[in-house]
Amino acid sequence: MDGHLPWIWCGVENTTGMAKSGVLLAGRLVLAAAPAMLALPMGVGMPDSGAPIDAVPSPAILSPLEAPTPQLTPKIWMAHPMSRRNLFACTPWILLSVLGLTILIDMLASHPLARNLTLGALAASLLFHSASFVKYYFTEYPVVTAPYFQYGIEQALAAAHRLNNGSEFTIVTKRINQPYVYPLFYDRYDPEKYQRENVLKAKGLFGPVVRFDHYVFYGAGIAYSKYDHGVIVFDPTEVLPAKPVARIDYPTGNPAYFIVVK
């Protein structure tokens, strides 16, 4: 291989071919970023009370019910790209990293000591950043992202079951995105039973489910005034009409859900 690592992806082993590959990958990075730049994440128009409009987007469950629609200024567009839509950039970034490492090793092919020192430094950097990522992923990340992943709904449903005598409605706030899926999952609800029974839902593929079995998915405050009895799960931004009998907290200690019994 004449001291060169094979650049299999583009089928060439010369500098010109690598340069062309680099340009192609850079262009793909730009294209991959377009969907992220043209979409805003949920919560950008619903800042926490008192937070600046360009703050980190709020989870929907923590956003005010009547949040003003912000003016979509360039500052907001630049501050809030939809990072999940940039997943297409993973492949070109990886290939660019391989391309850069290949060029670096080729440049140092005639200097074994410099090449070994460079590879050692890269290996040490890789270990350091990998360890930092693992530490962050398992310690800080779950705390920061808990509201975005509906943390606490499992515990809230378990508390509601303990407080329900078996004949009352369990009412879950509709502030949660598609809340009906959580009782189905966490209560191991029989799929065949769900498909057979009369499920009350709005029309359309993504029409919200309003009720099945003894579960009701509604605005918690409205449900409290509408139903004579029930165990109601409130989100922390909703006004509590009575003293809660149970509280579910996020890992930070802030309230995630309140349980009110009527």
Describe this protein's structure.
The chain is α/β, with parallel strands linked by helices. It folds into 2 domains: 132 residues, no CATH class; 112 residues, no CATH class. The chain is 42% helix and 11% strand. The chain is built from 9 helices and 7 strands. A 7-stranded mixed beta sheet has the order 2-3-4-1-5-7-6. The longest helix is centred in the middle third of the chain and has 28 residues. The protein is elongated and about 85 Å long.
Compile the SSE list and pairings:
Elements: H1 15-37, H2 74-79, H3 90-107, H4 112-139, H5 141-145, H6 153-163, E1 170-173, H7 181-186, H8 191-196, E2 200-201, E3 209-212, E4 215-218, H9 220-226, E5 231-234, E6 246-249, E7 255-261
Parallel strand pairs: 1-4, 1-5
Antiparallel strand pairs: 2-3, 3-4, 5-7, 6-7
Helix pairs in contact: 1-3
